[in-house]
Amino acid sequence: MAEENNHGNKQLDEALDCLNTTFKHKDFKTPLQRDAVLAVLKGKKDVYISMPTGSGKSLCYQLPAVMAKGKITIVVSPLIALIKDQMEHLERLKVRAESINSKMAASDRQRVWTDLQAVVPATRLLYITPEQADTTSFQNLLERLVRHSKVAYMVVDEAHCVSQWGHDFRPTYLKLGGLRRTYRQLPWVALTATASAKVMEDIFKQLSLKDPLKFRASCFRSNLFYDVRYKESLDDEYEDLKDWVVECLGPNWEDKRANGPCGIVYCRTREATEELAGQLTRRGVPTRAYHAGLKDRDRAAVQESWMDGEVPVITATVSFGMGVDKATVRFVGHWSMPQSVAGYYQESGRAGRDGLPAQCRIYYSKRVERLIGGYFRDIARKQDYRTKAMTISSLDEDQYEGGRRGRQRELDMYEETGERRSDERSGLESLVKRQLKLRRGSSPVRSDRQKKQESKEKEQAVKSSRLRAADCTERKIAGLTLKTREEYFKLLEEALSRNLNACVVAAHALAGRVPEVAIELEYNIFTSNRVVTMYRRAMALLGGHSSAERRSVADLCVQLLMPHYKAGKIASKDEFKTLARSLAHSYLQRHTTVGALEQPDLSATTPHLAGGST
């Protein structure tokens, strides 16, 4: 026991010395971090580490890797961007770290391979992606390294990606379990910032970790401050976001510097990132959008401009997450509800990594969530019908002749009268009829009084509706309700009003015309679709900017302005064209990338303005 204590004390002294000389820290951040490092150094058991962002997870394997002289620590990381950040950090500390990935030049790859096959490699940490780990060339390399006892540890960073219950599941991570079973003599280390008990157990199972030592810290971070804003209660949600962003960035935020204050706003869709970037930029806060729809070089350029401080704010989908390690993030906003609690913790945890106060805010819209919820309820209802149909089918013993019970039933029925068989048949028919009624959306348990009340409410809703063909809603598109149309109409009307307000030149000419424009646009989509999901999609994508849509917007603007032109409220043809182009351009600008915009072509929609009288 005394010998073990002496060895442990010696190991701790060596770890503290390495921490001071290599990583420039006088002591460990927390006792938990110290204990995790010592557990990895012993190398006797697999180790699982779950610590919040900014708590020093990476040091738990980097310090043991530096202390393992003459050996290599292999780190599996999900993103090349994350690998790049880790390598740059280690390079500043003068720790030799290399990577093998698909983005490398052939000469760099050969240089790394040559060093790895040396008798004493200079490389301390080798970073790879899970896709690289699955290649034959890497597995052959790993086999040689293990055979010559050159591997100190196998590390899986962002280990929640291995779990199907995690918020960033990556199928290629599942292949790592095969490597673990092949090289059982190697100690493995799994790290994550967020993992529920269910995810943790799944990580152990998928990676085949054998009775790992667990080091888990609370996810609470005292420097992060959370709040929620309801969009419906705001006069201008974009202006409110801009004010919050400026407040979070603090004074002198316009000074472009790499270590300056910055922030992230997460959006649900690519289109939303583009729109929000445009809104903030036009309000004086330079912002760029980041999403999977951009080309690789464009995404890299956006991220670098944000990391270097050229733009203080980035709007992004959840694809912008892992690989982001900037200490001066002063805020993280969510323009819509996050996909999960674990995902929200991970994303909001990008803020305040320097330990200073940072803000985290969700902009919540009841109306949008209700629409999305309605869409998924429709799907769930259809799935429920299918499930019930399958249950009925499985209970039918006529399938496969019912096995032994089926044969016994045949013998019993042979001696019975036809009365019982008739009762069974009628019971089954009754059950099937009830299920068919459910498919058609009607409930067999509703009373006549309830039906009359519902019918009366529908009639009143139709009478009070501003929508065209309101009474034909359910007949025209199965599954679509008038209430759903009204919800989409309100969103459309609000969007048109914002567009009009943004177009100062044309606002006076179109005052009061927004409702009829919204009614016309909604009716066009309603009449051109037969399936409820297509209707929803068309309404959601109304703000697109294809060439056909540009012509449609330009044509609509001409129709709106024509009565004012004929009434003499618009002085000349040139002013007419200017107003129409300005209005169309303003509308399209809200739904396209910030930068040069393609002007709508009015020549095809206004041939009568080319010359002569109107």
UniProtKB/TrEMBL annotation:
Alphabetically list the UniProt keywords.
ATP-binding, Coiled coil, DNA-binding, Helicase, Hydrolase, Isomerase, Metal-binding, Nucleotide-binding, Nucleus
Q: Where in the cell is it found?
A: Nucleus
EC number(s) given by UniProt: 5.6.2.4
Q: What are the Basic and acidic residues biased-composition ranges?
A: 401-427, 446-461
Please list which residues make up the signal peptide: none
**Which GO BP terms apply?**
double-strand break repair via homologous recombination; regulation of DNA-templated transcription
Q: Which InterPro entries match?
A: DEAD/DEAH_box_helicase_dom (IPR011545), DNA/RNA_helicase_DEAH_CS (IPR002464), DNA_helicase_ATP-dep_RecQ (IPR004589), Helicase_ATP-bd (IPR014001), Helicase_C-like (IPR001650), P-loop_NTPase (IPR027417), SRI (IPR013257)
One Pfam family for this entry, by name?
SRI
Record-linked PROSITE patterns: DEAH_ATP_HELICASE, HELICASE_ATP_BIND_1, HELICASE_CTER
User: What's this protein's name?
Assistant: DNA 3'-5' helicase
The record lists the lineage as: Eukaryota, Metazoa, Ecdysozoa, Arthropoda, Crustacea
